[in-house]
Amino acid sequence: ENVNPSPLCDDTSFVRRIYLDILGVTPTAAQVSSFVNDTRLDKRSRLVDELLRQPGWADNWVGYWQDVLAENPNIVNPTLNNTGPFRWWIYESLLDNKPLDRFATELILMEGSTRYGGTAGFAVASENDAPLAAKAQNIGLAFLAFDMRCARCHDAPSHDFSQEDLFNLAAMLHRGEQTLPKTSTIPGDEAAHTSLMVKVTLKPGQKIAPKWPFGDELPGSLPRELLQDPSDVREELALRITSPQNPRFAKVMVNRIWQRYFGRGIVEPVDDWETAQPSNPELLEWLARELIAHDYDAKHIARLIFNSAAYQRVPTSDVEKARLFAAPLRRRMTGEQVLDSLLAAAGKEAHTEEMSVDVDSGRLENSSINLGLPRRAWQFTTMGNERDRPSLSLPAAQMAVTLLENFGWRATRQDPLTYREKEPTVLQPAILANGVVAKRIAQLSEDSAFVAMALAAETPSDFVETVFKQILSRSPTATERDLFVALLGDDFSSRKTGAAPGPVPGWPARDGVSWSNHLSTESNEIRIARQREFEKGDPVTTQLKREWREKAEDMVWTLINSPEFVWIP
Question: Could you read off the pLDDT of 400-429 as tens digits, one per residue?
Fold first, then answer.
C-alpha cells in the first residue's frame, strides 16, 4: 500500500507499554532502570516471558471480560439485569491461564454458585423477561461475533438472524423449550405488523425448541464423542461454539486479543462480523490456527504479538496506517489502569471500605452481597443506592469509583460492551487535578514510595530522576531536570527532620454502620463524618520538613497531571 511503517519504539516506551499491556500497571523506577540498562539483545522477549508469568496478567484482563460478559452484581439490592458476581471465576480462570475453549465452555455450562463466584452467576438476569435469551445474546457477541441484539423482539432488520434463532440458543441454555414472553414481542396483530420496517415471525406464547440455529456450517461436523452427556443440549451448545471444527471461535478470540493490544482489530467491529471483512485474512487464519494448535492458550497469542515488530512500533493516530499494521493505534489507559497505576506509582493500596452495605450479614444473600476489600480496580462495583442515604454510602470507595467512571469504566453493566467511550472529557483532567485519589497519591505519607525515594536520594537530581521514572517511566529532559532541581535544591540538604516515622495509613476499620441500622440518624452522621475524614487524605510523613515536602508533593502532583501519564507510549 506504499505506507511506511513507524520505527520501533525506544526502550523506555517499550517497558511502559508492555507493563501496562500485560500487568495493567506502570513499572517502578527500579524496573525501568533494570530494563534500560540490560544490554542483552533479546531483553524484550525475556521481559515479555517474565511478565506473562505474573498474576497481573489476570488482573489486567478481568475488567475486559466483565464488560464483554456484562458481569453486573449489585451490593445494595438486585435490580434489572443484575448478575451474580462471577468476577472471581473470571480472575481465577485467567490466573490459571485456562484454555479459551475451556473458559467459554465453563461459562456456557453456568455451574457452581450464583453468589460466591461460580459461572452460575452469569445465568442470573434479575427481573428480565427472558434471561436466557439475554445470555444467548451475550454469548453470541463474545464468542462468535454474532450481534443478535436486534432479534430480541423481532427478526433482526440489518442482520441475517431471526428471533427464533436467538430463542433456539436460549432453549439450548435452558435445556428445554422456551416460551416467547409477551413482553419480548411487538404489540399488535399480523395486520398491524405488515406496516412495520421489521419482520415479526413469532407470536407471544409460542414454544421454541432447543436446537443449533446456524446449520451445519458452524461447525461443519460435530465431534459428538466429546460430549460427556449427549442428551445435554447446553453442553452441545458449548461444544458447537468451541469445537476445533468451528474455526470462527478461534478467530474471534485472537481478534479480541489483537484489538486490545493494537487498538484496532484485524476484523472491525470485533463483536459483529455480519458485514465486516478482515484487513488481512491470512494473518487472522494463521493466528487462529496457532491458538488451536497450542491448546487455546491466550498467552501464546499474546507472546507472538508482543514479540512482533508490528506491536513494538511507535504508535499512530492514523486509523488507515493501523489497519495496515504499519503502527499500533495510540491508546489511552483504561480506567482500571489509571487507578492501579496511580496506586502502584505511590506504592499505596486502595484503603477503601469493603464492598458491602451488609457487613453484619443480617440480610439474605439474594438481597445483599459482600465483594470484599478491593485491591485492584476490577474489584469495585456500583455505589448507587436508590434511597440515596449517606448511611448506605461507602465514601472512600466512591472516590475511587468516581475516578474510574471518568476514564470510561462502568459501575453497572446491564449490557455487554466491547468498546468503551474513548473521547477525552474535561472531567478527566479535573478529577486528576482535584480528586481525592490524586491527592492521596501526591501526599508524602509514611506508606508513600516517594518518601523512601526522598530519604534515599543523595542529590536533588537523583530524586528528580527516580520520581520521573516511577511516574512516567523515563528520565527527565534537561529542561525538566533543571526546573525541578531548582524547586527542590535550596533546602534539600536539610529536608530530613530526624524524627521517627509516624503512623502508617491502613484499611479503614468498620464503623458499626450496616443495613441493620442504616435508618438511624447516627448512622448518617457517622458516614458523613467518615467522608470528611477521607477527603483530608493520608497523614503526612514526620520524616520530612513541611516546606520541602510540600514542594516535592507539587512535583509528584504535576507529573501525574501531565497528559503523558494517561497515554500508553
Answer: 999 999 999 999 999 999 999 888 899 999
Q: What angle do CA 385, 387, 391 make, to 5 degrees?
A: 80
Task: Find the helix or strand (DSSP H, E) in which 567 lies.
Answer: strand 567-568
Q: What share of the chain is helix, strand, coil (3-state, %, to 5)?
A: 50, 5, 50
Asked if residues 330 and 347 have their Cβ atoms less than 8 Å apart, the reply is: no
**DSSP string covering 500-561, please?**
PP-PPP-PPPP-S--GGGTTSHHHHHHHHHHHHHHHT-SPBPSSB-HHHHHHHHHHHHHHHT
Which cell numbers hold the place of 373? 476489600
Q: What is the DSSP letter of 192?
A: H
Contact 185, 202 (CB under 8 A): yes
pTM above 0.85, yes or no: yes
Residue 331, beta-bridge partner list: 568
Count Cβ atoms within 10 A of the Cβ of residue 79 and give its class: 0-12 exposed, 13-18 middle, 19 or more buried.
middle
Gyration radius from the chain CA atoms: 26
d(CA 291, CA 40): 29
Q: Which class for 42: exposed (0-12), middle (13-18), buried (19 or more C-beta within 10 A)?
A: exposed
| Cβ-based neighbours of 490, under 8 Å, separated by 6 or more | none
State the CB neighbour count (10 A cutoff) for residue 38. Answer: 15
Q: How far are the Cα atoms of 173, 233, 239, 463, 526 from residue 176, in angstroms, in the given order? A: 8, 8, 17, 67, 52
Number of neighbours of residue 374 by Cβ within 10 angstroms: 22
Tens of pLDDT, residue by residue over 61-118, are: 999 999 999 999 999 887 778 999 999 999 999 999 999 999 999 999 999 999 899 9
